[in-house]
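notes to self, project folder thing:

trying the whole complex as one job this time. last attempt i did each chain seperately and stitching them together was a nightmare. two parts in total, labels are on each line so i dont mix them up again. if this works i'll redo the older ones the same way
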Amino acid sequence: MDWGTLHTFIGGVNKHSTSIGKVWITVIFIFRVMILVVAAQEVWGDEQEDFVCNTLQPGCKNVCYDHFFPVSHIRLWALQLIFVSTPALLVAMHVAYYRHEAARKFRRGEKRNEFKDLEDIKKQKVRIEGSLWWTYTSSIFFRIIFEASFMYVFYFLYNGYHLPWVLKCGIDPCPNLVDCFISRPTEKTVFTIFMISASVICMLLNVAELCYLLLKVCFRRSKRMQTQRNHPNHALKESKQNEMNELISDSGQNAITGFPS
Amino acid sequence: MSWMFLRDLTGVNKYSTGIGQIWLAVVFIFRLLVYMVAAEHVWKDEQKEFECNVKQPGCENVCFDHFFPISQIRLWALQLIMVSTPSLLVFLHVAYREGREQRHRKKLYVSPGMTDGGLWYTYLISLVVKTGFEIGFLALFYKLYDGFSVPYLMKCDLKPCPNTVDCFISKPTEKTIFILFLVITSCLCIVLNFIELSFLVLKCLIKCCLQKYSQRLKSSAQECHNLRYVECGEIGAPPLLQNRHSDLAISSPQRGETKLLFDTQEG
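result (full assembly):
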């Protein structure tokens, strides 16, 4: 089980996403997951080994490291990516349920005119409307919440997004206030800012997708109301025309019967 | 051999209920994936970074072994394996059904993967065993490590340590966070298993009750039909019944009515 399998899970939802959703999936997997696996993990690989405190007191380094890094950046990013990707599973489950119901109705013989066979049901792209629209919108909403929460947790835990090169630590068993040095602080800061920027972009994409979906629904509703408004006039015109046709045909018949045989 | 083998081996996705599929998603994404991409690395250098405030050789080794008889991460991995394997029972049962159909060369079951008859019991047993394993491992975790939190300092006075020494564990907060994550997902899986169990049992009970009720209706309808023939006499009854029961029908209609009542009450 690794990021590739998650990609397979989420990639399946790609078919039913909007274009913005597809861009979001690409950004997530290329600019965040790949960077995490290929680069960031190497940078943070030796973080505790190379965390050095200016003291020989055993245990001081452990305690100071634990105090300044309650959860490592790398782990937080991995959790963030997992949590942010999973709402898409809701959509995948809804689509699977919809297909299951369609297949059941097809087997009973109800939707034969809509689908050719069971394979057709599986291949058909499901449109984002009705209950699927609500599932999709809630998944985007949860994504935004998770992104924002993790960004806040990051900011709260590390007092910003910048890593200092020295930290002062005076926790027991350290004998006094000792200097502790973080390994590769600049490189870590660069990657932190990169990941936060990618997070912000993903959040903006999600907000844009949400607005797009809401606008689409409003537009559809206003179109429906417009056709309903025009439709009664149209119906009235049609019925008047029918009446006239009947009158003509009646008068015509009378005229015919009036002819001498 | 890797974790993907477990997923391919259990392959029970097709034979699960809806809740079973949610359980699979929780196990593979929130437990297995988190284990592989995050948790494993937290415990990577646990012994190297385990430090005791003493220079006595061997003291650190002995203390580490005393406090961590089995590493939390290994226990986590074992739990994941044990919890995934009862689903194999279902898989094997379906394979056995398919094998049987092939041997007899005719359709023996409505569908080999449908949970009815023996497969229902197998599915139920696999759920019970899964839940048992989950609870068992959580209890073991709690007993071995005196709770679900990892302290930053432990006092150790085992030989060859000269006196009570302070031993410091690496990354205790991060480990505590991941263990809590493990406990929460475990509890979620237990709840899902219980829901699925109750759902299966309720469904079966409802089906049984409905069957009994429809059988009762059928039998009472049949009785009513027979009695109606008896009372109609010459009009609608077959010749045999006509000769035997027409007298009865004419002479004692009330008894027929009471008989009908009695039957329905009995049925």
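what i see at first glance: The mean pLDDT of chain B is 79.
need to look closer tmrw
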